[in-house]
């Protein structure tokens, strides 16, 4: 089927693990008659969870794209992983859709990580909706759940349909009002609430409504519905059961009729850089303009090469054409364009603005790179996507060089695919460290690498990346004078150091006047300072957030040479640091724990004993409590096992990097003991 942009519907299903996104995707494919039988998560037969590890564990680890046509619309449902450890992979594909739908497990409610994810979708300017799933389950308190949602998300969350017959059907409360009994509220009053909400975005409609007009024009109501979605003024709540299919077809009907097409959704703003400067470019999804696409997922397959999943935001991409990837000077041929249905690739001839398509063999593509078809001096950038900084680390132990090479390459591949996974080599410690969002994330990555290469990867607790900084301003001086045989070395430096704000890095200012240190030696002074910054001044960890101003010195016409000023710079800097109240800092993370409510006391007590500070807690529907707080990362290296033992295996936690903070004086003493910054020469 060929289609236009206005016939496209892109929707991502997001939400916590186990809420039912994958089964719901399966139910949607079945309702749309894409599949003849409905697969099951538990049997590992869904279209969406097609990776071997996903089938084996019954959890989604990667987003999958499910394209199909229904109700004259070209639809793509993006099923995303739910566990917080994979939130980077989820957030990174959201720029491909207009609407994010939060799937909530009716038996569990909304936890803090899910709330943050939903808020992040809002900050990406997406239209949002909610599906309350599993309404077939026993003992669900749907009224309580709506109250909770309205409290924690907002009063703009309103039912668009209502469960009835004990969760055996759903009744529309947006279109026609039918007088039937439902499980929670009456249809008429729910109808009034949602209409009240949407007329607020349309003055004319509001007037008609206030005049008591019974029949509001359907087209205006639909338009106002779209506008309210775009403004975040309405978040419709649907009820469904992916298990029994109740509400699934109704959701699909409403989505295809009322959710915005790429033309009607909120448009992304790209940045265009050229010699003339920078300007913003709003992409209005016009298929007749030059091509602009955004790579929202990179998948590397040992046989198929590097495939880019691309959202076209402007123009039309034709098979057989050539595109420029990012700032590449040479174009890349696009031999094939595919639409994805899970693992299946369906070849298409062209993709128009609004389409999500897969392009094989895009070997130079990287996450979030822009694909375009005009070779010019301008460089176009897609907005950066906020994914959490990976802080949870594991050091890799290699058996031999051959293995080191193999494993490193495999890990690098994952780092290209996953924007919240990193491989770093800590030269100072000769340690290869992988960083991700949590234990589960890294375990999953390693198991994938092991399965692919038939090797076992051993890991260790990595060293903590401490950092040094100074907390006061000070001055430093050094006169480096050395006579070795004939030629001597001479350089003298006066400098001042000041703390900069966190994240400020390093600034070097040259305020030397009258050439007392000749211009060619200033870089030598900076080099000396940098050597200390890299190596650390008091504990052997990188020193940062400092401004260094060189303001005076002396040179000698014969004996002054680079080495002399490097040395003088180093020592003058050390002299200043010693007086600038240096401290060692460590990473502190924000933690969110979900534990059985009766373990709350034990968990918070233990948390405090690790130096953690609890900032809040919420009791959830399923008798678990969400606890949030902050604690040094150092304490969390083995927290999984610790929390498990306190909660009898029922607790889980997620964490995110928060900031660097000074370590306790005792620890600073330990870290500093035996460290020498400058070996005596
Ligand atoms: N009773 C019931 N179980 C469901 C429903 N939807 C999903 N499940 C089950 O909940 C579990 C998690 O579902 P899944 O789709 O993998 O959740 P996801 O992590 O959000 O993708 C699976 O065992 C599903 O069979 C539902 O509507 N009712
Ligand atoms: Mg899933």
Provide a quick synopsis of the model:
The protein has 681 residues and is of the alpha+beta class. Strands 2-3-1-4-5-9-6 form a 7-stranded mixed beta sheet, with helices on both faces.
Q: Keywords, please?
A:
27% helix, Rossmann fold, binds guanosine-5'-diphosphate, 681 residues, globular, 16 helices, Elongation Factor Tu (Ef-tu), domain 3, binds magnesium ion, seven-stranded mixed beta sheet, alpha+beta, six-stranded antiparallel beta sheet
What does this 3D model show about the protein?
The chain is an alpha+beta fold and 681 residues long. The protein folds into five domains: 5-258, P-loop containing nucleotide triphosphate hydrolases (Rossmann fold); 269-381, Beta Barrel (Elongation Factor Tu (Ef-tu), domain 3), CATH 2.40.30; 392-463, 2-Layer Sandwich (Alpha-Beta Plaits), CATH 3.30.70; 468-580, Ribosomal Protein S5, domain 2 (2-Layer Sandwich); 585-667, 2-Layer Sandwich (Alpha-Beta Plaits). Helices cover 27% and strands 32% of the residues. The protein has 16 helices and 35 strands. Strands 2-3-1-4-5-9-6 form a seven-stranded mixed beta sheet, sandwiched between helices. A hairpin with a 2-residue loop joins strand 10 (269-274) and strand 11 (277-282). Helix 6 crosses helix 8, helix 10 (401-417) packs across helix 11 and helix 12 packs across helix 13. It is globular. Magnesium ion (MG) binds at residues 21-22, 60, 82.
């Amino acid at each position: 089927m060929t289609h236009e942009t206005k016939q496209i519907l892109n929707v991502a299903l997001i939400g916590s693990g186990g809420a039912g996104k994958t089964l719901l995707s399966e139910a949607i494919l079945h309702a749309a008659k894409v599949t003849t039988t409905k697969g099951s998560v538990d049997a590992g037969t869904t279209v969406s969870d097609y990776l071997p590890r996903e089938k084996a564990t019954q959890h989604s680890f990667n987003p999958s794209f499910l394209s199909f046509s229904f109700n004259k619309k070209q639809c793509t449902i993006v099923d995303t992983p739910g566990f917080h450890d994979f939130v980077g992979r989820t957030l990174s594909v959201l720029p491909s859709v207009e609407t994010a739908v939060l799937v909530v497990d009716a038996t569990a409610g909304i936890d803090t990580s899910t709330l943050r994810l939903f808020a992040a979708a809002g900050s990406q300017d997406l239209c949002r909706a909610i599906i309350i799933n599993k309404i077939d389950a026993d003992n669900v308190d749907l009224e309580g759940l709506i109250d909770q949602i309205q409290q924690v998300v907002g009063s703009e969350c309103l039912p668009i349909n209502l469960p009835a017959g004990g969760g055996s059907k759903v009744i529309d409360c947006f279109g026609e009002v039918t007088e039937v009994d439902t499980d929670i509220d009456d249809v008429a009053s729910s109808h009034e609430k949602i209409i009240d909400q949407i007329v607020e975005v349309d003055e004319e409609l509001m007037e008609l409504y206030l005049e008591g007009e019974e029949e509001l024009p359907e087209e205006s109501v639909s338009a106002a519905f779209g506008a309210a979605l775009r403004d975040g003024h309405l978040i419709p709540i649907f009820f469904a059961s992916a298990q029994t299919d109740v509400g699934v077809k109704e959701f699909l009907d409403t989505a295809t009729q009322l959710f915005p097409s790429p033309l009607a959704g909120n448009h992304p703003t790209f940045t265009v850089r050229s010699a003339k400067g920078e300007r913003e470019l709003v992409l209005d999804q016009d298929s007749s303009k030059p091509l602009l696409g955004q790579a929202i997922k990179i998948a590397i397959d040992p046989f198929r090469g590097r495939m880019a999943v691309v959202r076209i935001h402007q123009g039309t991409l034709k098979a057989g054409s050539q595109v420029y990837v990012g700032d590449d000077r040479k174009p890349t041929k696009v031999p094939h364009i595919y639409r994805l249905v899970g693992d299946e690739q369906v070849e298409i001839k062209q993709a128009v603005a609004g389409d999500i398509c897969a392009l094989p063999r895009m070997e130079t593509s990287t996450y979030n790179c822009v694909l375009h078809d005009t070779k010019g001096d301008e460089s176009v950038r897609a907005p950066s996507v906020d994914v959490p900084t990976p802080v949870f680390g594991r050091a890799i132990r290699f058996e031999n060089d051959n293995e080191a090479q193999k494993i490193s390459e495999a890990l690098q591949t994952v780092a290209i695919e996953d924007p919240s996974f990193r491989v770093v080599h800590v030269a100072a410690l000769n340690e290869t460290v992988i960083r991700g969002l949590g234990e589960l994330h890294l375990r999953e990555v390693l198991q994938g690498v092991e399965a692919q290469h038939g090797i076992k990867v051993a890991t260790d607790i990595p060293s903590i990346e401490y950092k040094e900084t100074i907390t006061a301003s000070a001055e430093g001086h050094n006169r480096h004078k050395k006579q070795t045989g004939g030629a001597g070395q001479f350089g003298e430096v006066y400098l001042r150091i000041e703390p900069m704000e966190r994240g400020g890095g390093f600034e070097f200012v040259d305020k030397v006047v009258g050439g007392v240190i000749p211009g060619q030696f200033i870089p030598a002074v900076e080099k000396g300072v940098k050597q200390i910054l890299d190596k650390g001044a008091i504990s052997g960890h990188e020193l940062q957030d400092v401004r260094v101003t060189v303001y005076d010195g002396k040179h000698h016409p014969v004996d002054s040479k680079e080495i002399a000023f490097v040395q003088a710079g180093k020592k003058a800097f050390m002299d200043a640091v010693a007086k600038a109240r240096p401290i060692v800092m460590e990473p502190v993370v924000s933690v969110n724990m979900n534990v059985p409510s009766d373990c709350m006391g034990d968990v918070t007590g233990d948390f405090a004993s690790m130096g953690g500070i609890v900032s809040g807690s919420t009791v959830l529907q399923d008798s678990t409590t969400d606890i949030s707080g902050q604690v040094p990362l150092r304490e969390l290296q083995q927290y999984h096992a610790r929390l498990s033992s306190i909660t009898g295996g029922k607790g889980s936690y997620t964490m995110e990097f928060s900031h660097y903070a000074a370590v306790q004086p005792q620890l600073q003493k330990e870290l500093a003991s035996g460290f020498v910054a400058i070996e005596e020469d």
